[in-house]
Amino acid sequence: MKAVYATDLSEASEAAIANETCLECLGRIGVEAFHLVTVVPSNVHAGMPGMNFEKRRQTALDRYRETFEDAGFDVETHVVRGTPHRRINGLAESVGASLTIVGSRGSSPLENRFIGSTARNLARTSVTPLLVNRIQRATDDPAVLEEHLFQRMLYATDFSENAQEAFEAFSYLRHAAEEATLVHVQTPADPEPDDDPRDRLDELAGRLEDWDIETRLDVRQGDPVEEILAAEDDHDPTTTLVGSRGHSRLRRLLLGSVSEDVVAKADGNVMLVPPKRVA
Question: Where is the UspA domain (predicted)?
């Protein structure tokens, strides 16, 4: 499996890259090769202060390369110019990546929590499963919030095709996962279900238990985003797994989808799985 690791070369990104346990977790789910990429903003031009950005960033990536190679991974580095999320997605497509990873400083101390624009735009448009790796904020010496990335999973499902696509990620996450909480949120707008949601969750739980993943069920009522975030608080997962509804032009114009809001507002790591692309 190939992964694109996007970094802005900040101390926070360096903390994630330097964490040996995080790299071990990625290796356990099948990642063998990394493409490290950093993007020079298109508004930085030659002749401006920082005109040697490409050279300086390549030097930094070469330092990161050593960390990955020492951990046993194959590594290629890329310094590109343009709009970050577009260039990251373009690289993921061109190298045939199966996962994109981006760091985030985590929740804001303000009431309305947020992540950076690049991570938010990737959540809207990613062509691969996207792992948002949370890093401590408001500290001079940041560290990752969770070293064992996939040890305790929270999987949110509305039983849609998108959610099922996300569940299939357990086919490789199972090599690092020990526990999973399966959560379904019923809303007043939902039609009356033909069967008990717990029965459907039980079927999914059976598959995970066959892989020796300890599983619990959680059926809630209310606003999906609020309830998924409440489930995160209650169960303390290392990563929340959700499916997205794709990346059409229209969808990019719409704000507030459940998956994007979970990516933006969750305290911990989030893995978002988009629909498979049809050639």
Answer: 2-132, 150-274
